Every structure is written in structure tokens, then in C-alpha cells.
Amino acid sequence: MFTKILIANRGEIACRVAATARRMGVKTVAVYSEADAGAKHVAVCDEAVLIGPAAAKDSYLRGQKIIDVAKATGAQAIHPGYGFLSENAEFAEAVQAAGLVFIGPPGSSMRAMGSKSAAKQLMEGANVPLVPGYHGDEQDPAFLRQQADRIGYPVLLKASAGGGGKGMRVVERSEDFESALASCKREAISSFGDDKVLVEKYLIRPRHIEIQVFADSHGNCVYLHERDCSVQRRHQKVLEEAPAPGMPEDRRAAMGEAAVNAARAVGYVGAGTVEFIANQDGSFYFMEMNTRLQVEHPVTEMITGTDLVEWQLRVAFGEPLPKKQHELAIHGHAIEARVYAENPEKGFLPSIGTLRHMDAPRAVEFELGADGTNPAAVRVDSGVREGDAISPFYDPMIAKLIVWGADRTQALARLAQALGEFRIVGLATNIAFLKRLVEGEAFSSADLDTGLIERHGAALFPPAAPVPLRALALAALVLSEAGQAANESDPWSRPNGWRMNGDYRRTLSFADDYSAGQEGGAYRVGLTYRHDGWEIDLDGQRQRLELVKRDGAELSLRLGDTALHGCVRRDGALFHVFTGGRHFTLAYNDPMAHAGEAEAAGGRLTAPMPGKVVAVLVESGKIVAKGEPLVIMEAMKMEHTIAAPSDGLVEEVLYGVGDQVADGAPLLAFKAA
Question: Which CATH class is domain 207-460?
């Protein structure tokens, strides 16, 4: 076995590889950018080497620099993780040419599968079923539109060299084709350096089923069953589970064999994933092959009792696969939720900031038992810690939350509970959205397809509701400092408002930051301090309040006849209240503080996040209609269109194409009609 490997990646996958290598007695070398100097993956590896500035092109994409570091530190192999250089055939071949081992497939396999169009032509020859579409080299817009018209709408435009949902557009009508194609090509060239696209029939209510395959250099190839990755937003996965609900054994075998045939057709070695689009009637079609380990590989590990990273190292070292096909049985059910720094209510825009507080659910580190199965019911794979920053330079994933159950029902219950225990302060996250999704009727009943989120938008994105009294009671108690350490035998030293001759009443003003300015967004909470406890009232609703127990930020209260538990994290004037599996953010209006000047909107449309202007669609002086696209920004390699909020006049355009803009920067001056 190798004695030392270099991990050419960052985040949770770098930490995951380091953990497995450590269990195997293999030392690890981390590489890092200037932005990642204090990152978790740097701390968990045995050595770490700086390779460049924050931008990926100047650091994690510098293949020759990474190879030089591997040779200088005595590493024998390079593990690419996923993303960055993991599917770069030139890098894989350069690693081998340098006398090192690339822990992944050969460059020839990557090339064969790297182009979606070429891969589909290859799969057609291997009798793997394909979605109707055009996968050729002709890229003239008029020709591609003719192909789309021939196939029939809706069609899906996909970047030929793409992945991860980038460079994909659904086109519903022929007249929308040209603008969708232009947008798709811009995003493709930015993300992959190649703007070639293919056109496919867009299936209605399809499921996304993928097969984990593994091959060694001795001619062995197996499939480790399937994952259902149907729940997606913007063509990017949100929840993954294994096995796929409702999968008959004969179809599982057919898809597994098709995936193995696909891998064999390109001389594959290592871990890979063959992705299929499946109709509700059970028919399935080849989509693409990811020639690397997938983000969602933990659910496969949980149900098969395998450590896929260990398999990667052993196969790269020249060993045969640890198991044969007949030894790969399914045990229980596993689900993975991707916890992101993003704002679902704002189109899932990434959220940039610092993890001021991060309380993860109680979890067991992934480790195989003596019987080959994994004893962990809850597992958290994360590349960040409390105090780390989520920057605009990389993917905003905070963690992967993986649960296992004896069946899907138990796994669902564990996932919902674990999400309720995940508490993050400092930036927006998708945790509340994930909990609604997991507990919703569609997912819990396995009514799955790739349009689930859009179809159930009303339930998944409910309107803002008033903050419940229990959350206000928790915030009020913390704000009043009631129950903090004091000499209970001395009433004069208690910070609870005690008075010798009467009661003391205090009025606290809060605002729900998600509904501020709307009816119900402001709350005036009365807190009365009595000799035998407290009384809280909101809108005339009075209840006794008693502190039962306090353990740091964790509080147990009795509100009237109801016992409640919660956690309160204070961040300046904001009180983050976690109770009942929900997160409430309350802004406290301190009457002693000077009110700061509110940011004047002034009719200026602002950048929703840091990014680059890629298109300006209007000129100063133009009259526009509500909803008309004005500016297109690119951030996190995704395009975001800023549209007119109403009919009006564009008074001034403040940025041009190619300009970098900060979060909240005004993009243009706009006067509503």
C-alpha cells in the first residue's frame, strides 16, 4: 500500500480521504489556497503546502504545481477528490508521466466519457438505451434549433463538457430557443472552457437514478446498486438516497448490468457513476458517466458496508476489488441531505459569511464494523468548522448529513430529527427548507421526480408566519439575563428584575427579519418580573414563564402548562432561536442604542451576491416593463438575471460587462413608472 498520498482538493472530500488514509496507515499531504490557509482539510492532513491565491484557476487548478508538490513531499499518488481536476484527462496523464499514481480512471476513459455527445454515441454502440436527441458536433444555432423543433418541445440544452447542473436549460417553446442557447453557452464556457451543447428530449416527471460502479486493473467490474437523486433544484442534487424507492430487483439488475457495460466499453478503472434518467413506467436511458467519486457516495457506503475511498486506494495500488458482485448485498436504507450556505427563498442564491456558530447533530464518524457493515445511524461529512468562512470562491457546501435506518421510514425519521439538531448562525442556510422537504408528503411517500421541488413550491416555500410565543419567550428570557449565574441566596444579586415591594414590568421590542415591514413582523413582548417567577404577554395573551434548566445556550422552560426546550444564540442585535426543529431570527430593538441610518434603496437594483457582470441588456434612458431582464451576473459559475421590479425608466447603468461587483452593490439606477 502507498505510504503517502497527496489530496488535490479541499473541503469535505479532502477531509474524508484523509480520514480513510489515516485508518489505513497512509500519510496525507494537503494543498491549499491563500483563502484556505486555516481550513479544516489543512489541519487534518499530515502536511500542507500553499499552492496559490484564492481563485481556483490560480491554485486548485494548477496541475503542474500540484504534481511538483507531490514529488517534493515524497507522495506516491494523487487523489483528486471531485470537482477541480478530478475529471481532467490531461492532468491524470501528467501525473502518470511524472511517475506518480493517479487515484482514478485512465485519461482515455475520461476522454471517452468527458464529452456528453461522444459518450452517447459510444453508448449507442454498446446497446445502452439513450434519450432521443442530437449529440453531434454541429453547433450552428439555426441548426440546433431545427433539431430541437424535430425532437419536439420541451427540450433540454446541456453543456457537452459539463456536470453539476451547470450549462443546462429547459426550453419550452421554439421562440425561446435562441436566448436559452446563448445563456447556456455563456455558462458552459465559463465553467468548463467549452461552449459545445447537445439537445435532448426533456422527459416529463422523470427520476434521476444512478449506479455506482467500480472496476480494477484485473478485469473485474461490479455495481454497488443504485442511488435515487431525483430531488434537485436548478439541476443540482439536494437529497440522495439508496436504494431507490420502489426499485424492482429485475430493473435493478438491468440497470446495474447496463452500467457495468458502459464502464467496460471505455476500459474503466476505479470508482465511477453511470447516471440514468428513468420514466415513471420503469424505462431508463443513459445520461452520462461521472468518472470520479460522487458527492453522494456515502449513501452507497452505508447500505453496502463498504469504504469506497479505501477501495479507490487499493485499486490504484494494483489490488483486485475487495468484493465480488454476489457479495454486494443491500442492508437497510440511507439518505443524504446537502447542507448549503444558500437562501432558498431567494432562488437558492449562495450565502457568503462566517459560521459564527455551528452545532452539528450528534454523529458517529464513518467506520466499518467487524462484520463489514457501518454502525453509524447518523454521519456528518464536513470540511468546515465553527469560525470558518464561506467564501465566493468555492462551492458553498457546509456539510453532508447522512442517516441510515433499517428501512426508509426509520431513515426519514432520523433525518428529520438530525436536521432539527443542525444549528447554524452567521449566514443563510437551506436547513429549514430541507426539513420541510423531508417531512413533506411527496418525499415521505416517495412520489419522486426531478420536478418535485417546483411542483410542491407552495408547501416548500410557505409565506412568512408570525413568530410563535415560545420562540419569543426564549429570546426574552436570554435578553433579560434571567437565570444566569447568580447567588440564589441573595435576592439583591439576582439579575431577574426582583423588587421588594411590587412587580417590575419591561417591554421588549423584536422584529422578525424575514417579515419585517409586513403585518405581524414587529413584536412588543411584555415581561413582568414577580417574586415567584415571570409572566410574559403578547397581544394580551398572558402566560406564566418559568426557567427549569439552563445549560449554556440550551434552555428548558415551562410556558403556562407547556414544557418547551430550545437554544438561543445571540449575534449582536440578532437572536437566533432554535426550537421545535425550527430556526427563528429575531432582531432586538434596543431603546438605548442610536438608530443607524437605513440603507437607502433609492430605486437602485443591487447585486444579490458577489459576482461578475456578464451581460447588460439595457441602456441608460430605456423604458422597460416589469419582469424585463436588465443585467445578467455570474456567481459561483451560475448565471443570475436581475429583472425590472416594475414598469419604469433605467436612469443609469453603473457597471459594464466583465466588472466584478460586491454583494449589495447597486447595478443601475431605476425609476418606477
Answer: alpha beta
